[in-house]
Amino acid sequence: MTDFELAACSLNELTVMLRDGKVSSREITEATLSALEHQDSKLNLIAGVDPEEALRQADAADARRASGDALGLLHGVPLAHKDMFYRKGRVSGGGSRILGEHPATVTATVLRRLDAAGALDVARLNMVEFAYGLTGHNEITGDVRNPWNPDHITGGSSSGPAAAVAAKCLAGALGSDTGGSIRFPASCCGLVGMKPTYGRVSRFGAMPLSHTLDHIGPLTRTVRDCALITEVISGQDAQDPTSSHLPVPSMVPEHHEVAGMKIGVPTNYFAEVLDPEVQECWNQDLKRFQALGCELVELVLPESFFVSNAMVNLVGAAESSAHHARWLRERPQDYGAQTLRRLQSGLQVSAVDYLEGLNLRQVVLQDFLEQGMARVDALHVPVVPIPVPTLAESDIQANPGFIEYLSLLGHCTRPFDFLGVPALSIPAGQTSNGLPCGMQLVGRPFSEPLLFRLGLAHEEALA
Amino acid sequence: MSQSESYQLLLREWQFRALEPESTSFEDARRSVSAQLDQKRPLLHRLSFEAEPAGFALILHRSGGRDD
Hints:
Order of helices and strands of chain B: HHH
Radius of gyration of chain B: 20 Å
Oligomer: heterodimer
Largest sheet of chain B: none
Number of strands of chain A: 13
């Protein structure tokens, strides 16, 4: 097996080969570092990498395996993540000029959980500046390019993770999703991406953007891998008081039987903004679920659902500006133009509007659960409303109208950050430009296992 | 005009305005947020009166764990 073939294996394949002694963690890590270096020259993936430290971790993993110790689910597998998860003593740049000036004093809970499962953390991956943007552009660190076609965007803000996994350098990477930043790049790069239920995964030690909307989850090439990483990082955390006390079920599906399940298809809100090609992908993908024995149920989303995109804009703007208030005063020149304009706009949100937005969250969620989800197991809706654009045609920067433009791009993803419900982005074909087009399965709170089961059945039907 | 047509118009508008970078300002960004909020204002006020005491997290958990 060549280095590139080894780096391209799924998590599932790697863990089996490691267990059976067919490959060492050092060999996989060398292959991964080689693939990352090769693809970085074309795609601009890497924010930081320490090959010596990565190989030291790999050798330690191999030694522990040889000693016969009990091992975690991801023992010896190299992963790399969006450059916003703090590790004590290491810098995380957050795609910015500002954040990476001092080493972190804490380690993010998600990294600690991956460490405990035996995963290696071999690189920090590029991202949108402060995770504030959906296209993937970054005027500070440069734009990450889409492995399917480097003239096109990866989507953001988890641009580096999406490109690295799609380019088959890694089996999986963590991203974050405040308005769609896991699902949007997963869709643009043909990947599986899970935005878990709000509270399912601790945000402690992750760079905050908007603390009531931030979610952390994985991007992978397969549903099983996505489920495995989600399971490892989930669970209550005393250091994040918003994390849920609910026990973590097994996320990896034991079977893919989905016949009889009810898939909700909203007839309002989503279709209003869709490009005809995305609409066609949607129609075709629904037929796949129908062929799997699922029942398609058309439904009308409640009127209250329609405020959720605007509320993400409002709440997100206020919270992100609060997180950045000091730097906005002291270092405005160190921000990229679009990030600066968006953060400055949040300073103008009144406390009344902000609190109204937060209060509305429960009303909108209640309506959604009672009217949108009452008769179905999951919703099936698009992720990105248009075919994946080129870097040039979507480079709006801070030009007038950029907030409306970003709102349109996030039309299909943002509502589920506001609602806090889980959403799994799955590959669902391509548009005529040859770029991937994804769909999302949206569930009731804490129904990630069900979404993974649906996703697995869909993946096997597509294979 | 459909939303899709609005989107195409918007794209053309900012591509045109991109030629005039001096027209960008902090005020533009602020107005964008305010304008979106104003569009939703009537619905927001109706919904505000419907807010019930149960919190967001409570509703999430109350409806969670039904499957698998």
